[in-house]
Amino acid sequence: MSTPEITAYLKTQCGWSNGVRAVLKKYELPYTEKDIIQNPAFRWEMEQKSGQPLSPCVEVNGQMIPDISGEELEQWLLKEGLVGNSDKTTNVPLNAACSDAEHAAMAKGAPLKFQS
Fold first, then answer.
1. CA of residue 75 relative to chain centroid, distance
2. What are the chain's domains?
């Protein structure tokens, strides 16, 4: 299998973004991360490429996969034959939103504390 070219448009802290990161780490796939919170130009770029404002979005070999969870990304990568089955596990949920408390902290600009 050749290594796909991957760009991930992610939030600094987000349950779904963390799930995408976990899948890419699980399969040891190199990728370029574009933090749409820290750099508004990346959010604009994501919206132009995906045609919508929801994140995460992952571009694989030029194909944009919009508003995707880690679980959905893993299924897509397997279906496309870009990765094989793996016995590795992840340490974060692959399909989970941030809690209401985490959203409130982000809105206030407070540092996030995730439970392990």
1. 14
2. 6-108 (3.40.30.10)
